[in-house]
Amino acid sequence: MNISKIKSVLLASGVTFMAISMISLPEQSFEASIRGLQMWWEIVFPSLFPFFVISELLIGFGVVKFMGVLLEPLMRPLFRVPGVGGFAWAMGMATGFPAGAKLTARLRQEKQLTRTEAERLVSFTNSSSPLFIFGAVSVGFFHNPRLGILLAVAHYLGNFCVGVMMRFYGKNEKNKVISKSLTKPIIVQALSALHRTRLQNKKPIGKLIGDAVISSIHTLLMIGGFIILFSVINKLLFHLNITLILASIVEYALTVLHLPRELSVPFIAGLFEITLGSRMTSQIEEANLMQQAIMASAILGFSGLSVQAQVASILATTDIRFKPFFAARIIHGFLSGLLTFILWKPFSLKFHLASTENTVVPVVLQEHDVWWENILHIFIKFGPLLTIVSLILYIFYYKKRMNSIT
Predict the structure, then answer these.
(1) What is the mean pLDDT of residues 90-102?
(2) Is the pTM for the entire model greater than 0.90?
(3) Cα separation of 1 and 97, whole Å?
(4) For residue 192, what are the contacts with CB-CB under 8 A and spacing of at least 6?
(5) Which of 103, 340, 347, 359 could bridge 154 with an S-S bond, Cβ 3.0-4.6 Å?
(6) Which residues of 35-72 are buried (b: 16+ CB within 10 A; e: fewer)?
(7) How confident is the model at residue 371 (pLDDT cuts 50, 70, 90)?
(8) Per-domain residue ranges for the chain?
(9) Percent of the chain at pLDDT above 90?
């Protein structure tokens, strides 16, 4: 039996096993589905949808090309990607998973990146958003907003290091020759690029906005499906004791790293879904705060198979390969945990991470340490309304476009 047939048998067996498990554990499956839907409904959709639409419009109007010319002197030497990659990098950090992959795929479709450049770019432009790190993890799970500073620094610095390391990926590929005018200032070149890009886009503004809405909601519906699916899978694996079996395998590795064996279950859960893994990590009483932070940081860096499946689905619409991204996630998870360990002592002394009393507090946390928590509550309160309005708008415009085609 060849490898292809073995793969077919394993995939069919795995899907059948999950179907039987869902039938055997209907209540747990339903609860997990509701949990995943609630996360998408309240947080993911309202936080990503506006950024996705605006990103599409910025690309269509040539603003991304404008930024690309300005950022070329920074992005090319550091990461060996064109300057437009700076836009994907910034938006990926601001909005979280999987915005970086979405924008990288879009830039590849616009032929502003080669395949190798796109694979380099996507490897470090996907990261957790500040809202998730500060609001959900540090405040919601650990009840320690100061911890978010350390987690964010380790996470984004680790991603930066991944980007620098990935510049050597595909090193034998010849870089594209970038034609530059020696007489015009860079700002003039950027404005010219913006103007040319806008003229090349023949779509009316109304159609451009409509297409941006449809494309964004298509992506978000796919993301929602993956969130719900992996929420159910994670729950079933836990109730079937498969998580405990896998955790027993990694216990030895954690012991070697001087981490409590009890963190093995959150680690396995985090491999599938970062939210559940981070929450379970914060509840392990046998681990001190530093050990919990190291594990949470590693989980955030790896991103979880749920996020990686979302990225794989987005990249499948292009010729960008998924393997470099997966390798980068493993590296990022390791680097984030290592950086958290290295930076723990200086950050602990500066921000008193082990204490919940108001001593030295960063500027962004001075309002009773609940700045990010308030933002999270706003999303939970008004997010569903934005989701409903956006979906109604999507249905209306999509139906109108289908009628015009027929």
Answers:
(1) 84
(2) no
(3) 39
(4) 184
(5) 340
(6) bbebbbbbbbbbbbbebbbebbbbbbbbbbbbbbbbbb
(7) low
(8) 27-170+178-405
(9) 17
